Amino acid sequence: MSSPETVERETGTRFMPRFDANGLLTAIAVDSVTKEILMVAFMNAQALEATRETGIAHFYSRSRGKQWMKGETSGHILKVQEIRVDCDQDALVMIVTPAGPACHTGATSCFYRRVEGEGLVPIA
Amino acid sequence: MSSPETVERETGTRFMPRFDANGLLTAIAVDSVTKEILMVAFMNAQALEATRETGIAHFYSRSRGKQWMKGETSGHILKVQEIRVDCDQDALVMIVTPAGPACHTGATSCFYRRVEGEGLVPIA
C-alpha cells in the first residue's frame, strides 16, 4: 500500500519536488516547437529556484560541483515556457524555447547519434 | 582543452556508455508516434544490456535496489525501436512503442501535471 505522502505526491495538486540522496532531480529540456528532446541534466533546489525565478534553465553540474546557467558562456540559453513534473516528483520536463543550439558541440540537440550494435550513427 | 577520451566520446562512432559514481545513467522513453516523453528512470549496465538483448526497456530502481523490466507486473512494456545517446554518453533516449499506459497511475505519460506557482495542474 502507498503511504499518504506517496498518494499526495502522485495525485495531489501541490508541487513537492523530490530531490535524491545527493540533493538532485532529473530535468529534461524539450523544444516547444519541434518537441525534440534537447538535453537532460540535473538540478539541485537552488538551480530549480533560479530556473523558476528567471524563466531561464539552470542546472547543477555534478562534475564541477556547482550550479550553472545553460548558455552562460555561449549565450544559447533555454527560455522555459512550462515545467511538468512526473508522478513521484523526482523528474521535470521543461518546455523551452532555445536561443541557439542546445548542445555545446553545436548540435541542435545533445542526442545527435543513435546506437547501432557497438557503434554510433548520426541521426538523419 | 578536452581530453582525448572526451573527444572520442563526443565525436566518435563508438558506443561508450558512461555510468556515474553509482553505476547509473539516465534513460528517457519517448513514444515513437506522438513524440511524448513517457517516463524517465535510471539504468545500470545490466539493465542496459537486458534492454538491448530483449528489445524491451529495463531499468534500475534506486529505491528497491534492483533491476526491473517496465511492465513486468502490469504488462505495459515498452518496446524499444531505437536508442539515442547524448554528447557525453551519460544519458539515453529510447524511442519506444508502449503496450499500454506508461505510468503506474494509469496515465499515458508520467508527466501528467504542470507546475503553476506552488501548485500542480493537469495537462490538458
UniProtKB/TrEMBL annotation, chains A, B:
Residues annotated to bind Mg(2+): 86, 88, 90
InterPro entries: PRA-CH (IPR026660), PRib_AMP_CycHydrolase_dom (IPR002496), PRib_AMP_CycHydrolase_sf (IPR038019)
UniProt cofactor note: Binds 1 zinc ion per subunit.
Signal peptide (residue range): none
KW Hydrolase (keyword) present: yes
Pathway participation: Amino-acid biosynthesis; L-histidine biosynthesis; L-histidine from 5-phospho-alpha-D-ribose 1-diphosphate: step 3/9
Keywords: Amino-acid biosynthesis, Cytoplasm, Histidine biosynthesis, Hydrolase, Magnesium, Metal-binding, Zinc
Subcellular location(s) of the protein: Cytoplasm
Residues the record lists as binding Zn(2+): 87, 103, 110
Main location class: cytoplasm
EC class (word): hydrolase
EC number: 3.5.4.19
Function: Catalyzes the hydrolysis of the adenine ring of phosphoribosyl-AMP.
Family: Belongs to the PRA-CH family.
Quaternary structure and partners: Homodimer.
NCBIfam families given in the database record: PRK00051.1
Protein name as it appears in the record: Phosphoribosyl-AMP cyclohydrolase
Source organism (scientific name): Novosphingobium ovatum
